[in-house]
Every structure is written in C-alpha cells, then in structure tokens.
Write a structure and sequence with these properties.
seven-stranded mixed sheet, binds 6-O-phosphono-beta-D-fructofuranose, four-stranded parallel sheet, 40% helix, elongated, 13 helices, 364 residues, alpha/beta
Amino acid sequence: MAQVKGRLAVLTGGGDCPGLNAVIRAVVKTALKNGYEIYGIENGFNGLITGTMKLMDYASVSGILPRGGTILGTTNRDNPFHFAVEENGKYVFYDKREEVVKNLRDRNIEALVVIGGDGSLNIAAKLAAECDVKVVGVPKTIDNDLWGTDMTFGFQSAVNIATDALDCIHTTAASHGRVFIVEVMGHKVGWLTLNAGIAGGADIILVPEIPYDIDKIVEKINERHNRGSRFTILAVAEGAISKEDAKLSKKEYKKKLENYKYPSVSYEIAEQIQEKSGMEVRVTVPGHTQRGGSPCAYDRVFASRLGSEAGRMILDGEYGFMVGYKHREIVKVPLEEVAGKLKMLDPNASIVREAKMMGISFGD
Ligand code: F6P
C-alpha cells in the first residue's frame, strides 16, 4: 500500500449554494490522487469545534458533481472566535480556538480548505493569522460580492434560476397587463439582480448600490403604458433602497425597519406603484430557490477548477490565500486582503451604462 504523504481537511461554511459539492469533489480527488488523506468536516466550523469529521474516499464524492447543497452540511453560525451557547435562555459567547487547534492536531491534519463566503473566509483569515492554521479559501456565494475575485461559484447558477423566474413572470404579466416585481436575493449588493434582470428582460432593475426614486419608477411604467406595453417587470434586489432612506443614518434606518409593515422592500414599492399609477401590482419572491438545485455547467467547471487549484496550493505549501479569478485566470489572493471587504457594483460600470442605453431604468 502506498505511503500516505499527509492529512488535509475540507469544510463548507455559511449559506449553501450550487457548486459546493463540485468543489468538495475536486479537493478530495486532488488530495487522494496525490497521496494525501482528507477529512470532511461536518456542518462548517461547528464540526471543527466539536471534532465531527470523517475520512473521505473516492466513494464519498462519487456522483456529487451535479448535486446541489453540500454533502458536508453547513451553518451560518458557529464562529470559533465567538461561539454562541444558549445558557438560561440567553446566549453566552466563548472563544473556541483551542478546541479547533486541538482537533486538527489530534488527527495530524496539516492544512484546511475552507469553502465559504465573506464570513467564513474572515474566520479562515483569523485562524491563519492568530492560530497558525494552514488554510486555503475557496470563494462561494450566489451574491458574487467577494473582494479579490471577479467571480464566485454559485453565482451563475443563481442568475439562471432568477432569470427563469423572470421568464415565467413575463408570460403571466403580459397576459394580465400587470406590473410584476420579482425580488432577487442580495441584501448588500446587486450583481445577481442586475445580471438576472438583464437576462430576464426586466424593464426596471433596482439594486442597493443605486438608490431609487419611486416617481422615476412610475414614470417608466407610464412611459411603457403610453406606448402600448400592457405590463412592466421589475427585478428588485432584497437590499434595494430609496433615495430618502439612503440619506438616513444607520441608526435612523434601523429605527424605520423596527416599525416596518412590509415583509420586504418589494411590497413597499408595490404599494407605492399601485397608489401612484393605478396599475395592478404583484410581487414574486423566488427566495431560497436561488440557492438550490443543480449547479449549471459553468459553475461545475468553475467550482472544479477552484477546488483543484485549492488542492494544488496546499500540496505546494501555498497557504493563507483565497483561490480567486481575475481576467479569466485562476489567481491566489492573500486572505487578509479579502477579509472584511465587499465587492460592490459600481453604479458607473459599463454594464449599468449599457443597460441604461437600451432603456432599462434603475429608478435613479
Ligand atoms: O449571501 C447569500 C444569501 O443567499 C443572500 O443573497 C441572502 O440575502 C441571504 O443569503 C439569505 O440568508 P439566509 O439563508 O440566512 O436567510
């Protein structure tokens, strides 16, 4: 039997998205092919803290390439530096870094692949900087908002799902002559809404980076109506914000949300459009369907490339990096550069200009 060269581990953290399994598969295959053993850590950082992990083999990753979600499980909580435990009905926070280091050391795990978004990669950067853990990060999120990479895996699949929703809404909106709002995921950034909006033929696209004026939205609807279009489709990001609200301080905005009577901003916009235009408005929220299902072909290829490169970097001793994507090439980005930053959509980006040129309104 060939000698084992070393031991690695892989985990998935934060919200799931299509392509996680494709990355896991690529990392595991790269490790096994090169003579390493590899642990799959269960439920994100929780498994790292509690030591819940198992050795993976080729059978563990067989058939998972097209499967959505993550076979390892994930959580949005469980930060090892700020681990919440419920005690007497209250949350108490503990520092669990010693448990993490012990769990890795006890199993002779030399290095860790963290597949995650900004929260998970922040933790990965801190584990590297403060606990000397050898880490490589892989950028995941349907939001495509990670700093240091042009693209995150999961994004293209989510664009496809949100586009399908817009396509479906088009036929019913056209039949009834209604205004329809499709609310697309993205509390902080508008990449997903912008891309799905263009792909799905939305007439109005509202993103957090470009505050809207409700009167401009109504103007656009009326303009369409006056030239004979019976319907209007809006793609609205979860984090879309009006010009008035954008002027509020964080504290004032938080206060407004405390007494907010709508389930989300789309319903507020819907009510205002209805009042101002007299048209019938409906809201559709595809929600977590945007994170579900099988990864598209683009994401399968991209996730496989990222996973393979993460494996290679670990084998070559290149730690402390996120595997990024710049100008169509896989690159390595220092984790500390990624931590704490978001890649926002530039309101002056050419894609926004191009959309505006063909008549798409951003409500600004
Ligand atoms: O960050 C990914 C994301 O899907 C966002 O687009 C969305 O706003 C959020 O997660 C939803 O989070 P949760 O699954 O915790 O409701």
